[in-house]
UniProtKB/TrEMBL annotation:
Gene3D superfamilies to which the protein is assigned, alphabetical: 1.20.120.1220
Key words of the record: Membrane, Transmembrane, Transmembrane helix
Single Gene Ontology MF annotation: aspartic-type endopeptidase activity
Statement: the UniProt record of this protein carries the keyword Repeat: no
Organism: Sagittula stellata (strain ATCC 700073 / DSM 11524 / E-37)
Transmembrane keyword on record: yes
Stated name of the protein: Prepilin type IV endopeptidase peptidase domain-containing protein
TM segment ranges: 7-24, 36-54, 61-82, 102-121, 142-162
Record lineage: Bacteria, Pseudomonadati, Pseudomonadota, Alphaproteobacteria, Rhodobacterales
Prepilin type IV endopeptidase peptidase domain span: 15-116
One GO cellular component term noted in the UniProt record for this chain: membrane
Amino acid sequence: MSITVTEAAWFLPFVLPVCLYIMYTDMKGMRIPNHSVLAMFIIFVVVGFIAMPFDAYLWRYVHLIVVLVAGIALNAGGAVGAGDAKWAASAAPFIALGDLRFLMILFAANLLAAFVAHRIAKFTPIRRLAPNWESWNAGSKFPMGLALGGTMAIYLGLGLFYGQAAG
């Protein structure tokens, strides 16, 4: 992995609660709140400044801009929700560019697992644990925050064990 162990160690404790929160809010209400997007951005601004070399830190803002522009286009085309696009953009600076291919594979696998797990829960007694969640009755729509948050958490967790040594 291209992310350093130091970056992953700094980012994970702050990002993990936000990931879990958006997974929950998207399953419960089929929306990712703007304050979670803002939280991710603020975490990167503050923690990234501490955890990364300054030049790499500045370049990571390009990730945010590129993913935001792509997300706006995908949202305009009806391919993704606005909250999903904004959250993906706010999460993009945490991803090392060299890990992009790995992240896409991780996201695809996590998306499949999240979809299957959500559908199994939807049609089994597990649903009774949270009977009023909107995602159960959203038809063919899927709470993408479940996969987005999970992917980010797994990526940073793997970065702790398989990331590059800082230096």
